[in-house]
Amino acid sequence: MLSSHVIADADFVIAPVARHVFGSFVEHLGRCVYGGIYEPGHATADANGFRGDVLALIRELGPTIVRYPGGNFVSGYDWEDGVGPKDQRPVRLDLAWGSTETNQFGTNEFMDWCKAADIEPMFAVNLGTRGAAEAQNFLEYCNHPGGTHYADLRRSHGYEAPHDIKFWCLGNEMDGPWQTGAKTAEEYGRIATETAKMMRWTSDGLQLAACGSSARTMPSFGAWEYEVLDHCFEQVDYISLHQYFENHEHEVDRFLTAIDDLESFITEVTAIADAVAAKRRSPKRIMLSLDEWNVWYRARSGEQLRGVGWPEAPPLLEEIYNMEDALVIGGALLTMINHADRVKAACLAQLVNVIAPIMTETGGPAWRQTIFHPFAQASRHARGNALRLKVDTGTFTAGNQQAAPLLVTAVVHDPDTGAATLFALNRSLDEEMTLTAELRNMGTRRLASADELHHRDLEATNTKDAPDRVTPVAHPKAALTDGVLTATLKPLSWNVFTTIPA
Amino acid sequence: MLSSHVIADADFVIAPVARHVFGSFVEHLGRCVYGGIYEPGHATADANGFRGDVLALIRELGPTIVRYPGGNFVSGYDWEDGVGPKDQRPVRLDLAWGSTETNQFGTNEFMDWCKAADIEPMFAVNLGTRGAAEAQNFLEYCNHPGGTHYADLRRSHGYEAPHDIKFWCLGNEMDGPWQTGAKTAEEYGRIATETAKMMRWTSDGLQLAACGSSARTMPSFGAWEYEVLDHCFEQVDYISLHQYFENHEHEVDRFLTAIDDLESFITEVTAIADAVAAKRRSPKRIMLSLDEWNVWYRARSGEQLRGVGWPEAPPLLEEIYNMEDALVIGGALLTMINHADRVKAACLAQLVNVIAPIMTETGGPAWRQTIFHPFAQASRHARGNALRLKVDTGTFTAGNQQAAPLLVTAVVHDPDTGAATLFALNRSLDEEMTLTAELRNMGTRRLASADELHHRDLEATNTKDAPDRVTPVAHPKAALTDGVLTATLKPLSWNVFTTIPA
Amino acid sequence: MLSSHVIADADFVIAPVARHVFGSFVEHLGRCVYGGIYEPGHATADANGFRGDVLALIRELGPTIVRYPGGNFVSGYDWEDGVGPKDQRPVRLDLAWGSTETNQFGTNEFMDWCKAADIEPMFAVNLGTRGAAEAQNFLEYCNHPGGTHYADLRRSHGYEAPHDIKFWCLGNEMDGPWQTGAKTAEEYGRIATETAKMMRWTSDGLQLAACGSSARTMPSFGAWEYEVLDHCFEQVDYISLHQYFENHEHEVDRFLTAIDDLESFITEVTAIADAVAAKRRSPKRIMLSLDEWNVWYRARSGEQLRGVGWPEAPPLLEEIYNMEDALVIGGALLTMINHADRVKAACLAQLVNVIAPIMTETGGPAWRQTIFHPFAQASRHARGNALRLKVDTGTFTAGNQQAAPLLVTAVVHDPDTGAATLFALNRSLDEEMTLTAELRNMGTRRLASADELHHRDLEATNTKDAPDRVTPVAHPKAALTDGVLTATLKPLSWNVFTTIPA
């Protein structure tokens, strides 16, 4: 049997875990909006057409901020199309996904939905077919109180109070050849700078994110980040990272090292951002926004990727997640927590139906995919300070990794409530692991809950008819004695131990 | 007396001659549209205002595809100005030609005219003052069946069926300082790429042509093609060539070597395109579109080039062609045929009145210029495969050429009908030439027709009152015996021999 | 006592002093327009709402041309917002100055005001958020007689005759990071070129000014001018210079050498422009337009620089000028006159309230600041040829200058009227200066007037209640005998001696 030992001391803090790390993403793509969060006529829909069953699952999932309206979609989107009387909104071709966009859902509907879901919005502006002036107009429409053309236009649409949207993405994946209006690093660095300036002059207190590489595997990765930040360093708060994990060969050990690859990705982007800071002797630190991340490799081609014949809200990117995907999602969240000093935002892509933790049937029920669970647990329990751990564990070799730790773990301690949660992923394919974890300088405490997510079939999924096949259960072997947590972790299991003051 | 010998074997094929090589060009320029193809109130005009006499001549001329609406004009053109109710169309300044544009003729009128003339359209989009998004809107207006804003706009204008326009030019002569919104090679390579992407996503099966140099004599020639294609190689099918032959010094021998210079131009652009392919190890071959070509040097300055006082449809570029121009036009067509593997489109610029094979008097008759004839003959007879010939002939020295062949010739064989046509230009200034040509592997055949275009006065022209001064006549000295064509070619004569299965 | 000797010979001419050197500037900024030149309801306002008291002072000040509508403002300005029925004009956020722009004053109102003030307009186009096409539309609106969309739009707004605006600035301070839509030198060189082309094709006889550096202290100064002109050399007539003098340390001697620094600035930009000309072996000479200049350092931060809470026409940049500022303004004017061969335009920034020679109280009176006087005197008297002088004077060391001449002087001779004016600034802090000046080859003449501007308190200002504390008085010690002017110049005094044929 394997054994691992962890020391977590409340005095050794990496940083508070930003609540924005538990964000998600709603794009006008497939059935994420239409038939996902919005389905007038659905049995559970409210007066706004928001599905109540989906809202309930979202509240359980616990996303803190939701990116909107894209993604690739935004690079061809005219925000004006989605506001004002619904019967006057134009129908458009969505070139990004080969779909027809009716624009029956837009900015104001999304803001209403955010209120209903108690979620903060993260908006992206279109830097594909448009530029700084249109972004400014949109921001004025959203955030300016009144008395000007665009502010009064919003008010005439029934929204007297400004939406006060704070977090904005300056375009989406502008380095990607697939992107409408893709840019060179210089082009993007320039347009991001000029757009950011106009936005900041329009509204106070904005958080602005520049596009990093659309993937760590892009040939221009690194050079892109450096040149973009060299232009817009003074104007932005975040650089984005996009990461989709793939498992085409169904090699679970290789797949699990995606977690370590993400760690490298985070480390590398941090280094690049700080290199740009160094060049200008600046103490400013650019933060990281992992504003698209998930497992995605099955529904990624052909008619699952792009509509044929310009359908409305076709079933696109409807990835069905299994047990092993849940392990990777959990592990990736721990990596973000362990980089809490720089990873200040992240968006699980996406929220409903489209590579999503929540699935629906249009006109039917909604249910939780496997990846729902580690995300919900992390959002619920990872509150407070991420602690800088000492971890002794074994290693394995797979993929790009020569010595990947068998135990992936993180401990978050909340100085306000005294709660401390240890998350633990045993990456051994076949061996149980004995875990001992010292929780130092947190006072006397007791185990409040212990959960385990495990399934002997790594390909087990949740479906409409079997929605809880993969779901957390009470941990069978866990105890807290004299500040030392002991537990036995099943091979390929995800575990969450919450402790509170005794 | 000179003698030349040709061997043409049906088994040695360069490539089929693309029908698009016999294209022409209608620009909003001078009297090409207004008073040319379109003149409501003219005695021969139909209900659409299309001149019937011009249409009849065009059917005889035989252009297969016609480029529209420019040319320099397109770089300042808003397509929306030319659609919808005519009385609501705005009057604009046409900066390219110093004219006032009434917009009474536009996209839909041109499509109606194409149908009437049985001609395929080749549209250019404005990449001077506009970009990818407007090009996409225009394409959606033209080609999308319905159900979206722009498709439904077209339908509301009375065009229920999509126009289904396949061939598109990505701007016009963007390297030229005279161009509205001229671009550097990088700027143009980028905008062409992003425009092509949006267009391809909007409509299937497009043929897209990027702008090459506006002339082989541009200082940036070569470097321009390389950098532009380095950006947009994956997105385009064609690179354009523009070639206007000049004869300011009236040196007929130098003028005739323009044909060989065109050969070099074609060879050079082919090499550049393949060099870009090589760099990316791509088997893709970019084809050549000679989408503007003609003799043009007389009506090229002052009030013949540009309107004064912003007139409507002034007489601009009304070049009057003579006998020697017809020889150059014929020879250039043979060069294109002999590069049938790469020259897949070409547009004689232009169609009516403006550097054109057809002239009209506004309110009066229409007639054929000298250059009408070789073009009409080539379009009619150059059907099928261009053959790779063995040619023995003499040479002469003039212009840039040390050893220009006295005989310029091409043979096209149609495997379907069995017809085979030999075109022959004798470039000797003063000597007759005995031609013998073996037509191998084509079976027993007979001479179906033989025509000669010749005039002792090289400056002879066709006019309203003498419209047939320069016109083909039956060849006086031609015979086909045992598969060997024999003929005597007059000095500075253009000859066409068609043979068919016996 | 110091002594200086000047020789001015009517045969040694630098160049005629361009009347455009005595330009000024009206920006939509603070109270320059609203509450400055335009205040409907003011006791002196005419039917157009133009303040009569301000107009009277402007006629006395004598600006010949006035730049409009910005400045930083123009880089976010849509000209369409400011034309047409006033009740339909949109209210906009002015991002440049944090103000709300009601657009009740716009292009046509400005043109009416220019007529009332007998001043030529100098318009700037927006190259921040817009480009060549919109600039062309605007120019067509202003200058095209009629028969096209934009010309007829102007006519529909009540302006049948074209405004015929000749002098245009291609954007404003496009190198400044503070500028809406700032540009790199390449970006700006390109957009300026393409904009200039479209403008020249639209309207004949334009004078076009490209943006030079927004200050000589910009890190890109020099490189900017070279690269910009390398692009647009053939298309423009002027390169702009902006110069604001500062005196944060209240060191009067250092402050006075700003005049010499301006001399260097002019010399340097001339050299750069001629270097670009040299590269293309061009005899063309780019002229200099000092289209923003003044003393400005007090009201340059915080709420004096930028509105808080988006006020309408807040009191911004309301610099109060004192005696020493007037000396610097006078000296700077002499430097421009002494470079009359290249400095062909200049705009004192600005005209009313905003870093301005004229102050008003909204609803109250208007008065002259100290700097009003040297400007008014120079505009009135510096007519004709600037003469190339021989000057013997002492020097002093301060700021960047090792040997700054104590006497700053210029002589302008009008061959038409025979008038000749000598301007003299004694920069000695504490010594009087005996001036002798030979006026050669001007015939017999007499002293027509002699004025002195001096105040023992260098910080003396003019206010609403004491509007004439600093004002010129008759010179106490001046005479003209046998063509030799003799005068005693007080320390830190500005002196103007006008002579006319006897």
From TrEMBL, chains A, B, C:
Record bears the keyword Repeat: no
Family annotation (Gene3D superfamilies): Glycosidases (3.20.20.80), Golgi alpha-mannosidase II (2.60.40.1180)
GO molecular function: alpha-L-arabinofuranosidase activity
Listed EC numbers: 3.2.1.55
InterPro entries attached to this UniProt entry: Alpha-L-AF_C (IPR010720), ASD1_cat (IPR055235), GH (IPR017853), Glyco_hydro_b (IPR013780)
Domain Alpha-L-arabinofuranosidase C-terminal, chain residue ranges per copy: 291-493
Keyword Hydrolase tagged: yes
UniProt keyword annotations, A-Z: Carbohydrate metabolism, Glycosidase, Hydrolase
Catalytic activity, reaction form: Hydrolysis of terminal non-reducing alpha-L-arabinofuranoside residues in alpha-L-arabinosides
GO biological process, one term: L-arabinose metabolic process
SMART domains from the UniProt entry: Alpha-L-AF_C
Family membership: Belongs to the glycosyl hydrolase 51 family.
Subunit structure: Homohexamer; trimer of dimers.
Stated name of the protein: non-reducing end alpha-L-arabinofuranosidase
Organism of derivation: Hephaestia caeni
